[in-house]
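As the next step, I needed to go through one protein, both as residues and as discrete backbone shape codes, included below for the reader:
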Amino acid sequence: GGDHTITYPILQAVAKTQVSDLEMHGPVGLVHVDAHTDTGDRALGEKLYHGTPFRRCVEEELLDCSRVVQIGIRGSSYDPEPYKYSQEQGFRVVPAEDCWGKSLVPLLEEVRRQMGDKAVYLSFDIDALDPAYAPGTGTPEIAGLTPAQALEIIRGCKGLNLVGCDLVEVAPMYDLSGNTALLGANLLFEMLCVLPGVKTV
């Protein structure tokens, strides 16, 4: 739950986390699964809202921009070139249409190579999924990922040096079936299973 604004202060804290006597985490890689890039500058005059967290993170050097991938991007935007800012920073942007009708296992093999053994954060917006599966969110966008692809992405992060993860934008009151909350809970469980040091049967 919570909107995507929460990732910004989390990454501020992660960057300051001590990993040794002489070293902080500093900038981290990011696997960002979403319908939107969330790199806007402001909305209604505000610089902090759920469409701006990753621009703020770039400005504060919280991200290792050469190790940022955004998966499932599509839909509406305040900007006529919604991918431009991300690409200018060096992010890899994987639009939803590049994911349609295929397994994402090969993509995650590429992502694992890109991330290497350095610290990585996983941030998953439920609106990355098609609203047929997850209508309970504030900004649904058609033609999204499937639950099976979501599992491929999360399970594909196993072996990465994950230092944290989140699942955001779940709004159960918009889904009378309860499917969005069920899906969100299962995806969070899967995230816990791929954290370093977790043993699964």
